Amino acid sequence: MIFELPMITLTKLKPNIDTGIDFILPLTAEERTRSRYKFTLDDHEIFLRLPRGTVLQDGDILTDENDTFLLKIVAKPEPVLTVFASTPSLLLRAAYHLGNRHVPVEITVDYLRLLPDSVLENMLKNMGLEIKAEIVPFQPESGAYGNHHSH
User: Fold this and answer.
1) What is the pLDDT of residue 16?
2) Main-chain dihedrals φ then ψ at residue 96, nearest 5 degrees
3) What span, in angstroms and rounded, lies between the C-alpha atoms of 59 and 91?
4) Which of 36, 37, 84, 94 makes the best surface tag, with the fewest CB within 10 Å?
5) Domains and CATH numbers, the chain
6) For the chain, where are the E strands, in sequence order?
7) What's residue 75's pLDDT?
8) C-beta pairs of 114-122 under 8 Å, 24+ apart in sequence
9) How confident is the model at residue 39, as a pLDDT?
10) Which residue intervals of the chain are DSSP H helices?
11) How far apart are CA 129 and CA 87, in angstroms?
12) Distances from the Cα of 55 to the Cα of 28, 76, 142, angstroms
């Protein structure tokens, strides 16, 4: 006989709080765009059932219908390319060219970050950008992956 724990369905976001967190769930950027996600944490089977187009952010708190259970989402470190430029205008040009290709990009004033892609890496190197392969949390602009979702 298989003992099954009841599945917990998480359906709504809570304001950011740091008390009473039951579980922490590290997810990659791509996993944070899924509205349906099933996983097991500490022998609990948990099912995310979120409105389509929801993009979870690092630090988001999810709960179930009865607020009995709190789960915190964290951005899981994953392989990325971090792109640096010698001038702000070069970084802006790189962001423009990446945006034209509709790939998810994390944009800051100091660097751009994208998932590893040898074609894009070569394009950026040819433009004169410096690229560093890293394993860090990736937090692309929302709107990536075709999920246009406003806050």
Assistant:
1) 65
2) -60, -50
3) 28
4) 36
5) 8-75 (2.60.260.20), 77-143 (3.30.70.790)
6) 8-14, 23-27, 36-41, 44-49, 61-64, 70-75, 77-84, 105-107, 112-114, 130-137, 142-145
7) 95
8) 114/80, 114/81, 114/83, 114/140, 115/29, 115/78, 115/79, 115/80, 115/81, 116/79, 116/80, 116/81, 117/81, 120/81, 121/81
9) 83
10) 88-100, 118-126
11) 10
12) 11, 14, 7
Angle at 57 between CA 52 and CA 60, to 5 degrees: 95
Q: What is the pTM of this model?
A: 0.78
Contacts of 24 (CB under 8 A, 6+ apart): 71, 72, 74
Give the H or E element holding residue 115: none
Interval 34-56 mean pLDDT: 83
CA distance 95 to 83: 10
